[in-house]
């Protein structure tokens, strides 16, 4: 279904009002459909976007369902950390699909914390804890699973094909990071093991071109169980690391 047809059906109930044509113009100018609707579907959840956090991506939805859900389907007393949680899509999907798990969602920005609270209420999810933290600053305890979609886009045209829709409308602090997009990934690789139980898993989403640098970085930091996984477009999109320290 075309975006304009979806907009007409979902927001305007197939009635072509003046406001519909105004939104249609904004859509043509690159305004994200999810922001026009006010929400984005994500693994049977309705992810509200009132506070203009990063729009959850289909690639993230794919790898979470394909790789993470099956691995932990038999887990008991599962403790999960979703760091750089943004809208809360990943952590809330884990909490919804694993009702006996305890899921901590963390983000640096207050608007993200407000957004996660709102999405938890909309989707009737209670088995969560929210922490406003700059990466691991306010995090405590050890987890069976850490999930993260950190800012990983390089600001250098050499490495990145920019989407004008992202540049003009989405929160840039949730998209870009220093060191060619590797700043926060390096932080995670250096410090995540201190928050992981023995044998725990860490999943990090990244840009496919970063694979070799991430692999070298992980090995230099002592990670030995490193697996790269593909998205639905057969591009390397996520790295899974096991805490064997």
Pick out its properties.
245 residues; alpha/beta; Rossmann fold; 7-stranded mixed sheet; two-stranded antiparallel ribbon; 9 helices
Overview of this structure, please?
The longest helix is centred in the first third of the chain and has 14 residues, at 58-71. The chain has helices at 3-12, 18-28, 33-37, 58-71, 89-97, 110-122, 164-169, 183-191, 211-220, and strands at 39-42, 45-48, 79-83, 102-107, 128-132, 143-148, 196-205, 225-230, 236-242. It has 245 residues and is α/β, with parallel strands linked by helices. The chain has a 7-stranded mixed sheet, sandwiched between helices. A two-stranded antiparallel sheet has the order 1-2. The chain is globular and about 60 Å long. The chain folds into 2 domains: 1-31, no CATH class; 40-242, 3-Layer(aba) Sandwich (Rossmann fold). Helix content is 36%, strand content 22%.
In short:
The protein has helices spanning 3-12, 18-28, 33-37, 58-71, 89-97, 110-122, 164-169, 183-191, 211-220, and strands at residues 39-42, 45-48, 79-83, 102-107, 128-132, 143-148, 196-205, 225-230, 236-242.
Overall CATH architecture of the largest domain: 3-Layer(aba) Sandwich
CATH class of the largest domain: Alpha Beta
Average the pLDDT over all residues and give the rounded result: 95
Domain count: the total is 2
- Distance between termini? 48 Å
- The amount of helix comes to 25-40%
Major beta sheet, strand line-up: 5-4-3-6-7-9-8
